[in-house]
Design a protein that fits this description.
Elements lengths: L2 H23 L4 H9 L3 H23 L6 H10 L6 H11 L3 H8 L6
Helix pairs in contact: 1-2, 2-5, 3-4, 5-6
Length: about 110
């Protein structure tokens, strides 16, 4: 195994350890559990959070313009979501953990509509 590969594995383990320590006080943090189970890196999680930030802003703008149907936003979420992640799991885990609640509440409406 090469040094860079070992370094990447150590970083991943350190990140997951940090999440596990956070989960000790609140074991119901389903999003963190999912990150660890899937093996997402800190960078992949940051990219996912960036997607959610952007979609949250877009949803608020659309609501201000009077939109009531967010199916296109859901479709965009599906398109941008990394392949490692299952959209249903992500929406439910984020909702359960209280992450991006307004966005996840809207996206949740379309989970079983596909």
């Amino acid at each position: 195994m090469e040094n860079q590969e070992l370094l990447n594995k150590i970083r991943l383990l350190e990140y997951h350890q940090k999440l596990l320590l956070t989960m000790i006080n609140n074991p119901k943090q389903e999003f963190y559990r999912m990150i660890i189970e899937i093996g997402l890196s800190e960078q992949e999680v940051r990219e996912f959070m960036q997607i959610c930030d952007e979609l949250s802003i877009k949803m608020e703008e659309q609501k201000a313009e009077g939109f009531i149907n967010f199916q296109p936003l859901f479709t965009e979420f599906l398109y941008l979501l990394p392949e490692k992640l299952d959209y249903k799991e992500v929406i439910l885990a984020c909702s359960s953990q209280g992450l991006y609640l307004p966005l996840m509440s809207e996206l949740n409406k379309y989970i079983y509509a596909d």
